[in-house]
Amino acid sequence: MPTFAYLIKDPEGKRKEGEIRADSIDKATQKLSSDGQMVISLKEQDTTWDFLGPFLDEINLSIERMKNRVPLSNLVFFTRQLSTMFSAGLTLERAIHGLAAEEKHSKLKKVLTNVAENIRKGLSLSEALERHPGVFSNLYVALTKAGELSGNLNEILDDLASYLENLDDTRRKVRSAMTYPIFMVLFLGAMMSAMFLWIIPMFSGVYAQLGANLPPATQTLVGMSEWMSSHFGQIIFMIFFVTLSIWLVSKTKQGGFIVDSIKRRTPIFGNLLDQSILNKFSKTLGILLGAGVPVIESMNLMKKIVGNRVYERAIQDATNFIRDGFNISTALRRTEIFPSILLQLASTGEETGELDSLLGRASDYYFKQVDALVERMTTLIEPLLILMVGVVIAVMVIVTYLPVFYLGAALQSGL
Fold this sequence. Notes:
CATH superfamily of the largest domain: Type II secretion system (T2SS), domain F
Strand content: 5-15%
Order of helices and strands: EEHEHHHHHHHHHHHHHHHH
Shape: elongated
Strand order of the largest sheet: 2-1-3
Radius of gyration: 29 Å
Largest sheet: 3 strands, antiparallel
CATH class of the largest domain: Mainly Alpha
Helix content: over 70%
CATH architecture of the largest domain: Up-down Bundle
Structural class: mainly alpha
């Protein structure tokens, strides 16, 4: 039975999109029109290559984000200033045009100029922002649209700026925790490469002139050095190929799920990743619900912004449970992914009618957890990495100089 992708408008004028299975396009149209809905578009999906479309979309979006990368701090400043200027009575076109003129970042300046031009042509702010997915995320566009519909765009923009500041702080803390270990691993790799490619070959010439038998450990090291020197180009190519392959696999649905599952199981760093995702999830869902975005639509947006396929699948399952009539906390609990603290706060928020506020408290809790984890990691990992680098280099130096010690002992015994 073929699958059709549809875009419809319900009796209230709201647009909805999704997929439906039917024997033919006529029967699909009848099913969709039965409840008074107007079919805007209906296309048959090619299920044979269905995986290729989303995969290419992911690749294109990643390339778009790399091409139009804008520092989050610039986006925070723009959002905060736009909220202030709009509250002061300036029109959106004039406010954005003024901010574009003062913007120092060339890519963001170009985007803002284009956004202002599209608003002048009659597009809404959310529609103009939606044309630049590499700069403005799904969440940014959705909150802007919610602000336009509710009439409190300035408040939503202010909340959005605070959220982006929080997100920027979390990212900075996670990066600070990851930067030192990555630097030390790269430094160790560079040192070992230098030893194998230049230093050990120099000693190999000396060993050959001595004509003495080398210790087994040194022979192994010399053999590794010769192999690495003769295959250095292939090694670099393989590293590049494996890295590119993992990146491409991570853009597929199943491959991304496996890669993200491995990330979550990584000692120490997996816990840090979980805490940062839960911080983002709680803060974002609180803002969306507080802005009046419907629950199902909020959950669909959450699926796009968590940045982890394991959580995406859990959120999709929770969304299905909510459609079946479960409340938010019960739906999240049934996925068996979300921790008890978040579930308890969500349950209390539903009972008291302050779900958005309590989700904000959950976000603050996970933000503090990220802080604590980063502090602990920097305290423990730095000396451990220094010790590891020292041990590896010491072992290589000792093994390299071992034949010299053997030669010294032989000369003394001869004397």
